[in-house]
Amino acid sequence: MNNNVIENEKGTNSLTTMEEQLQPLLDDHQPPGPTLEKPLKTPAQKAMRKTFKRTALLANLLPTGSVLAFNMLSPAFTHEGTCPTAVNKTLTLVLLGLCTISCFFLCFTDSFRDERGKVRYGIATINGLWIVDCSVKVPAEEGQKYRLRFLDFVHGFMSMLVFGAVALFDENVVKCLYPKPSEEEKELLATLPLAVGLICSMLFICFPSQRHGIGFPLSRH
Asked: Could you list the residue ranges forming a coiled coil in this record (predicted)?
């Protein structure tokens, strides 16, 4: 009698163990639950999304410091795009102005490595490169290749245009400066920065800069 009870208990335990082992397998074969459908986007939203992706690389043409400062301060100054007070809008305009000026000015900076291999930064002038910390002097022959050129002004002007395009693709800035844009303004905001970015990108490719200034990739030499 006791043996039968023990065998029954063992059989029950084995069945329970088998059910526990099979449960994950059964769960995997259960039909998936209802999936949430993504909300449909309007043609304007799709165009804006594609434009954001295509112009994401424009920031690589700008000084990293200016872009980083803009990306960090823009959400705070615009209060996540709401701009509840006139102070927020003023701060946003000041931020845009300072970043634009820095993009222009940094195009006139350059760098070189001294005898010890240390990177030195300077500002391009008519006579050559003026070192910021005045710790070393560039030889006259070497300084001639760092002198100010007309192409520097072209790059500075294009950098300002590219930064303007990047700023207009920032949702916080657009919502702050254009809280209720009309259909024409929406179309202009979607096409103008893209056109400016593409044109400036082509010009940067055709007329590349030979400088490695502040905020730009360093030269190996």
From this structure: none
The span from the CA of 155 to the CA of 71, in Å, is: 22
Q: How far is CA 7 from the centre of its chain?
A: 70
CB 215 within 8 A of CB 64: yes
Q: Which residues contact 138 (CB under 8 A, 6 or more apart)?
A: 112, 122, 128, 129, 131, 146
Burial 87-118 (b: 16+ CB within 10 A, else e): ebbebbeebbeebbebbbbbbbbbbbeeeeee
Say what the pTM is: 0.66
Q: How far apart are CA 91 and CA 79, in angstroms?
A: 11
Instruction: Give me the residue label for tokens 């023990």.
Output: 6
Question: Within the chain, which residues score under 50 in pLDDT?
Answer: 1-15, 17-30, 33-36, 51, 54-55
